[in-house]
Every structure is written in C-alpha cells, then in structure tokens.
Amino acid sequence: MSDRSPDDDELSDAYVSARSDDSSMADDDGASSIASMSQTSEVDDAVLHDHAYLGDDVGIERPHSAYYEPGSVVDLPLVVLPDIVMFPGETLPLRMLSSATIQLITLRTRLRQEFDTFAVISTLQDPIGQVGTIIQIERIYEQNDVHLSIVGRGCQRFELCRIAHGSDDYATLAASVRVRPDFHALRPPFAQYDLYRAHRWHIVRRKRFAFGYWRPSEYNLFDGHVLVRKATAMLATSVAWRGVNAVVVDDAAAAPTDPTQFSYWLAAHVHLSVDERRALLQVDCTVRRLHELLTWLQDHTSSGIACRTCQTLLGKSTDIFNTQRAGTFVNPGGHVHQILTLYSVESDQVVCVGRPTTRDTWFRGYSWQCMYCGTCDEFVGWRYASKRLTPHVFYGLVRTAIR
Q1: Which of 250, 321, 327, 361 is least enclosed by beta carbons within 10 angstroms?
Q2: Domain Lon N-terminal, which positions (predicted)?
Q3: Nearest alpha carbon to residue 327 among 128, 93, 120, 130
C-alpha cells in the first residue's frame, strides 16, 4: 500500500469527492461489508442524480437547447479535461477554480446572456483535428456567494480547427471548431409495414422481395430502430447487463428511442475505456456507432472489470448499476472524474484507506473511503456506505483506472 495517511483531512485533492451538509455519519459507516445486488433495494434517485454538493442552484433557465449548423465554424471558450470524454446528452459539472477558463465562462454577466456554450477536449496532445463536445450550461451553483460552479450538458460534437491563447488576465484558451454532423439512421423502404407494427408480415415480405433490391435481413442492418431494439434485447437477455437494462425498464425517459440519442446514451452507460470512448466520439454515422456498440456488447457479455495498471480483476459487469444522469463529478480541487457505479467489488482485490467520512461527499447521506488496487496500489475509486439509505454500500470506480 501507499504511505498515504488514513486521516481524511490529508487525502489528496485528486481523490476527494465533493461537498455535503450531512456530517453526522462520519463514524456511522464502517468498511467491513461488501454488498451484493440481492442485498439491496432500489437506489435513491434523489441522492444519486443531483449535483447539490456544488452549492445553491441560482435558477437560470435555458428555454432552448444550443444548436449549431453542422459544418459551421464557431469560436468558443476551450476547456481541457484530461482523459474525460463527454458524449452528447451527458452532464458535466465544473467548479470555478478548476481552470482559468472556467473563471471566465462562469461570470454571471455572460451566463445570463447568450454565451452559454463552451468546447471540451480530453487532451492537448495533437489537438488540431481532435473531436470534442460542445457543452451547454444548464445550471449555476453558488457557494457562500464566493465560488461559482456550473453543470452543463453535451449537445453536439466538433472538430478542433484552431486554438487561440487569450490576452486577458485569465490566460484563457479559445478555439475555432467545426461542428460535426450526425448522419442519422434512415428508415428503409416499407418501414411503415415493420414487423413490430404489422400483423400481416407475409405481405410485407412479399412487397420487400418484389420492390426491394435486398432482403429484409439486409435492410435491417441499416435500420436504426431495428438496431436499437437489438441492443435493448441484448441488455434484457444478458445477465451481464441487467443493471443497464434496469434503467431502460424503470425509466423510459432515461433511455431514448431515437437511434442517434440512444447510441450516445448506451456509449455513456457501458464501461468503455477512454480510448474506446474517444473512438466512438469520432464516428459521424449513427448506424456505424450502433454496430460498434453491438459488437462491443457481444464481446463483453460476461466480462470482468480489471485494474488498468496490473489487470487484476476488481469487479464484474453483472454488478454495474447506473446513476442515469450523474456519471461525471467534480471535487473541491476542480478535478473532474467519470465513475462507474457497482453494487459490489472483489473484496480481496481492493483495499479501503482512511476513516469513512461524509465531508465533501458526492452522494448525500453516504460516507466515503478511498479505494486502491490490492495488487499494484493504484487508486481505483471510492467505497460509499450508509446505514439509512439503500443500497447500504456501493462503489465508484474511476473510468481512467479500469479496463
């Protein structure tokens, strides 16, 4: 193990979660039990889905979603978040102190006007031509009338054309970006007679054979709605993805049916590596993106989740559950983390360090401890525990630490 002190006040900024008003549970929850899915009931949505740890919501309203014409070139503030890959539809919290750029784009005067978008990329290495995501600011949070934080949502993809260094006191970055298109899936001929909508399928088959160049099975390879149903069926029938499927079943609004939106939603909810997320973000065609995700699901139906450094098995995909809207968090030091939530981990392969504390917790009512790989001592995430809430114990694995 590392020599890091177990006192939570001495934990590094990079490993601290985020703020909570509940400090009464620091000594209530130990680190002894490993929860399984069968021991838990439904996860408290209010606890897992908000970003209340950022402070008080000042209540701005965005009546319209930001939209730029594909192919257009726009100038936007640029934020670099190492190894953080955002898909359209995902939420991104940022604290004012995380970079000088955030200090500029979170000024009240800008946010209350139309300047509510900025560009996010995951690295400055070979930036020109890199694909990133345009983020629209949805909410602003204040803490003690001093610190500002924002929560934004990914809306479109872009290709970086040029970077400009600002001449102001903030030493900000700005970028000229070209908005990438999303080539949406088109319905094939005779889609109105789809198998799932028509009772007289034999008539449909005859019409397709008579007027179509390809057979129905070939048309289905390019039918986005058929591919969505195929992915949904894989989630429903595979034990490995029961946690993701629970979101589809329990909250229809959380899992969109539009093929393009579904492809981004699915990419955000499975445990893709950072490189795999980058590769998918570069894909313009919805059908291709869905096919690549289907192939990934087929190859990972019973896969384990391993430490990226030493390949030690840390958990199983069967224990993944999703917080739906909240997979990206920011700590008091401004460090952004994307996490994967699991009901249980391999208890003999991880080591929890420090006393449980609710200081700066991301999940109200839960205490947390830092968690390290038992083989290579690499930091891999956090253990969360509560006596009052269910699940009583769950785990947040940092996506950059696993594969």
Answers
A1: 250
A2: 76-301
A3: 93
Mean pLDDT across 99-109: 49
Q: Is 132 left (phi over 0), alpha (psi -120 to 50) or beta?
A: beta
Q: Which domains does the chain have, with CATH numbers?
A: 56-179 (2.30.130.40), 223-302 (1.20.58), 313-401 (2.170.150.20)
Q: Are 319 and 38 in contact (CB under 8 A)?
A: no
Kindly state the percentage of the chain with pLDDT values over 70: 65
Q: Which pLDDT score is estimated for 269?
A: 85
368, 358 Cβ separation under 8 angstroms: yes
Beta-strand relationship, 304-306 and 313-316: antiparallel
* Amino acid residing at 200: R
CA angle 326, 330, 331 (to 5 degrees): 130
Residue with tokens 């990329």: 121
Give 374 or 249, the one with higher predicted confidence.
Answer: 374
Nearest to 137 by CA among 171, 174, 108, 177: 108
Task: Kindly report, residue by residue over 309-355, the tens digit of the pLDDT.
Answer: 999 999 988 888 865 545 889 988 889 999 989 999 999 999 999 99
DSSP β-ladder status, 73-80 and 117-121: parallel
